[in-house]
Input
Amino acid sequence: MTDKNGLFDDLPEQLSPVTISQSGLGPVWTQHKAQLIAKYIYLFTIITRHGCYIDGFAGPKKQDLKDSWAAQLVVETDPRRLREVFLCDLKQDKADRLRELVKQQTDSDTRHYEVCQGDFNSEIDKILGSGLIKEKTATFCLLDQYTLECHWATLQKLASYKPAGARKIELFYFLATGWLHRSLTGYTVNLNRPDLWWGNSDWKNLVSSSGQTIAVRMAERFRDELGYRYVKAYPIYERDKGEGRVMFHMIHASDHPEAQNLMARAHRNVTKVPEPEKQLVMELSKIAP
Ligand SMILES: C[S@@+](CC[C@H](N)C(=O)[O-])C[C@H]1O[C@@H](n2cnc3c(N)ncnc32)[C@H](O)[C@@H]1O
Output
C-alpha cells in the first residue's frame, strides 16, 4: 500500500477476506465423499486440461463397497486429464491394492503413476522432491486420514511448495470431528501424536469445543497460517439426505476463485444427473486456468 506521506509503505498487501461458512452446498453424506472429490477434480481438469493428484492415505477403506474408493474413482475418471498420480499408504496390503489399481490402467505411457508405501509424512518429501510438480501444475492432494495421522508439518510442506504468487496445491482434508474428542481425551500418555497432528500442544483447548467449532477453527488455520484464499469446511453426514449425525468435516482449501463454485457443481452432479461434457466445456472454457 502507498499513501501520500509514505506512512503505510511497508504494510503487507491485504488480500480480500475469505469466508469459512458452510453455506452454499447441500448435505454431503459419507457414501458420496469419494464421488464428490472425483467429480470436483474432473470439473477442475476440464478448465486446466491437466493436473496432478496426490493421495496421501490412499488405500481403500471399504474394499467391496462400489464407488467408495476415492483413488479408484479419480484415476479412472474420463477424460484422463491428470498427468501425474501419486498414491501412498502405510500398509503393505493397501499398497498392494494400489499397485493392482495402477496395473489395471492402460495409460501408464502417457500418465506418470507412483505408488509409495510408507508414512505419508515422510513420503511427501520424495513426492515434492521429484520435480514433477511444476509451478503451473494444478495439483490436488487428498488427505483422507483416520484421525490424527496427517501432521501439521505435512500441510505446511504442501502449502508452501509452490513459489509465492503461484496457486498452492489444493487440499481436501478430513477432520474426524465425530470421534476426535474421544481420540484426544484418550491421549494422556503419548501426547506426541496429537502434538504432531495439530502442530503444537494447543489441541488441548479443543477438547471442550463442539465438532463444528473445531472444524471452523481448523479452517481458519488453513486460511491464516497456511495462507489459502478460499477455505470451506463441509460437514459430512452419516446417512442420506443430511440425516444422522455429522461423521466428519471435509476441509477444502484452494487459491482458485472458482473452487467453491466447482465444488457446488460437483455436489449437484453427484446427487443428480451428470452434465454432458460439451455443455461444461462451453461454460468452463470462459474461466481462466
Ligand atoms: C480412511 S483410510 C483411506 C480411505 C480411502 N481414501 C478411500 O477412499 O477408501 C486411511 C488409510 O490411511 C492409511 N494410513 C494410516 N496411517 C498412514 C500414514 N501415516 N501414512 C500413509 N498412510 C497411512 C491406512 O492404512 C488406510 O488405508
Q: What stands out?
A: The two ends are 28 Å apart (CA to CA). Strands lie at 28-29, 52-55, 84-89, 112-117, 139-143, 170-175, 230-237, 246-254. The pocket of S-adenosylmethionine is lined by residues 34, 57-61, 68-70, 88-91, 94, 119-121, 144, 146, 149 (CB under 6 Å). The chain has one domain: 28-284.
